[in-house]
Amino acid sequence: MTPGSWTFRELLTEVAPEDLRDEATAQAIRTCIVEQAPRGREFLPVHILAGLGAWFATGFFVGFAGMSGMFDDKMVLLFTGLILLGGSTFCSRMPIQEVFFRQALLAIALTGNALALVGLGQVAEPDFSAALTIGQLAICIVFYPISRSQAWRLLAPIGVALFAVIWMFEQGGHGGVHGRHAVQTVALHGIVAVEALLFGYLWLGKARPDALEPLAYAAALMLPATLVSVELAQIDDWGGLIEVRLWPSSLILGAGLLWTIGRISGRGSFRGSPDLWFFFGGVVLLSLMSAPGILVAIGLLTVGRWLGDRILMAIGYASLPVFLFTWYFSLEIDLGTKSWILMGSGLVLLALQQALRWIGRKEATT
Fold first, then answer.
1. Which residues of the chain have pLDDT under 70?
2. Residues 6+ apart with CB under 8 A from 219
3. Handedness of CA 252, 254, 257, 258 (dihedral sign)
C-alpha cells in the first residue's frame, strides 16, 4: 500500500491513527478520497429541461421588453444589445457548470448580438444589409477573443458569411443590369476566396490554438452554406435572385484543392507522380464542368480523412449530395442528356479507380 493508491477499505482497516499526524499522508487522503471522488451525474432530461428553461426565460424577457416599448428607439436597441452581449461574454469567463446558467448566457449573447445588429441596421438605413455585415464582423473581432462560449464562437463567424451573402443578393436591385451583375460577381468570388483562404489557414497551416477551433469549424461550414445559397438562388423556379458565372469560384477552389493535395501528400511537384497527375486532371475537369460546391465537398472529405476529423467528414458527406442535386437541377438540358452525363461520369470514375489501383500495384511491386 502506497500513498496515492489507497482504497476506502484500506483507509478504514490499515491506516493507523498515528499515521494521520503526518501532513503528507493527510494530504494524500484528501486527494484520493475527497478531490477524486466521482460526482453524480444528472439525468439527461434534466439537462434538456434546464436548457429549454433558459431559452424560454430569455425569450420572455425580450418579449416583455419589446411590448413595454423599450426597443422603440434604435439607439436604445443598439446599446441594449451591446450591453447584453458584453455582460454575457464577461460572465462566460466564470467557472459556471450549471446547464441552466450556461444556456442562459448563450441565449442572452445571441439575443444581444441580434438586437445590436437590428439597431445598427436601423441607424444605417437604407444600407441595412451592409450594416449587418460590417457590424457582425466588428462584433466577432471584438468579442471573439474574450468570449468563452464555444457555441457563440461557432455561430458568430457564420453570421458574417450569411449577412455578406444577403448583402450580395440585395445588390441585384442596384446599378442596372450590367452594373448589378458586375457587383454580384466580384462580391461572390471575393467571399469564396476569403472563406477558402480562412479554411486553408486554420486547417492546413500551423497548429492552431484551442480558442480558434470553433472558428475552424465555422470556416468549414461557411463555404458550403455560401455556395448552396448562391446555387439555389440562381435557379429560376426558386426566385432567380442572382445571375453570376460560377467558373471563377471553381478555378479558385480547384487551385486550392490542388494545393491541399500537394500539402497532404508532401510532394511539391507532380513529376514522377502519375497518381497526382490523375488527380490533377480530375480537378481541372471538375473546375471546368461542375459546380464549385462539389470541389468544396471533395476538399472537406479529403482534409477530414487526412486529419481523422469525423465532424469535418460529416460536413463533407452532408454537402456532397446537396451540391450534386443543385448542379443536376440547374443543367439546362433535357432529361435524356442528363442521364447520359450521369452514366458517363460513373464510367469515368470507375476507370479512374481501376487506373489508380493498377498504379498502386505497380509501385508496390517495384
1. 1-44, 171-183, 235-243, 266-282, 285-289, 330-333, 338, 341, 345-346, 348-349, 351-357, 359-366
2. 157, 195, 198, 199, 202, 203
3. negative
pLDDT by residue (tens digit) across 253-273? 888 888 887 777 765 555 555
pLDDT, tens digit (0-9, with 9 covering 90-100), for 40-77: 455 567 777 887 888 888 888 888 888 887 778 888 88
Backbone angles phi, psi at 174, to 5 degrees: -130, 150
